[in-house]
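Folds abound. Consider this:
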Amino acid sequence: MAFNFEFLTILLCFTTIAWAQRTPTISHITQEQIRDIGGQVDLDCSVHYAQDYPVLWVKYDRMKATESLPLSTNSGLIIRDSRFSLRFDAASATYTLSIKDIQETDAGWYQCQVIISVSNKITAEVELQVRRPPIISDNSTRSLVTSEEESAQMECYAGGFPPPKISWRRENNAILPTGGSIYRGNILKIASVHKEDRGTYYCVAENGVGKGARRNINLEVEFAPVVTVPRPRLGQALQYDMDLECHVEAYPPPAITWLKDEVQLSNNQHYRISHFATADEFTDTTLRVITIEKRQYGTFTCKAQNKLGTAEGQVELFETIIPVCPPACGQARYGGAASLAPSAGTVAVLSAIYIAYAIKRIANPRH
């Protein structure tokens, strides 16, 4: 009996020592959690053989492992934030960290730690993802200027969770240079830009959270001037005014001049030049020939030039007997003095009367 008693005593001592030396373990940690802003989450950490060791919940940055924020130790909170709470279930040795009214800043990694010594700890971690609406990043394209026939690339990136998907559209759902009205992807490439590609492009980021985000990107295309002449031949009577017009399309805005017989014209008593910019790329230019003299009939040239090239258009001004209205609807000028001139309607009526009188004379030779 004495032998048995001594054996049991020794066995109990070894058992006690072995039990005391059992290493703590983390038997369970909550898996990745995804929540909406304003929601609530429970993070569980179950431990074994840790009753004599500190157990902590810590929020930390995986990119900067040295930056961590202790949240709780054993069954008590460290931080003072009413949104956080801690529960401990002794039966399962589970420490539950609860977060309510979740904010975007709560997203990140949460680590359960059992501190064994100054240089030794056991850890397990869980990631909390917070759904966030898309925000277009600052490294996305804001505007772009390129020249015709060159390539262009517009980029768009966005943050948020789940990761946003990027699509491209044009103003008024115009067809994209890539074809179709929608292009999906972060980078929109145009192999060879044409002037028709200029305008506003929309980068749209969507991830199912909120209404999405949009950025307007202006693509400006530099191109050589294109000149069109709406009325290449114009007639007008002596001593009346006439307007000659050209439409110019170009970017950057061109220098526009009018010439006759290779001589550049300027504003004076014979000519008045006007430019009307209808948009960044469109300009209407008008040359008014004032009180036309014989020497002013002929071919006029409107010339547009920018750094990418030059274009010309020609307008022929020829003499007529009957004044053309407009612009010659008011007065004729002779020798610098203004006198009333018949309108086109008056001239037409007088012409009709004269023709009728002439026919009557021919039909009645006695008169």
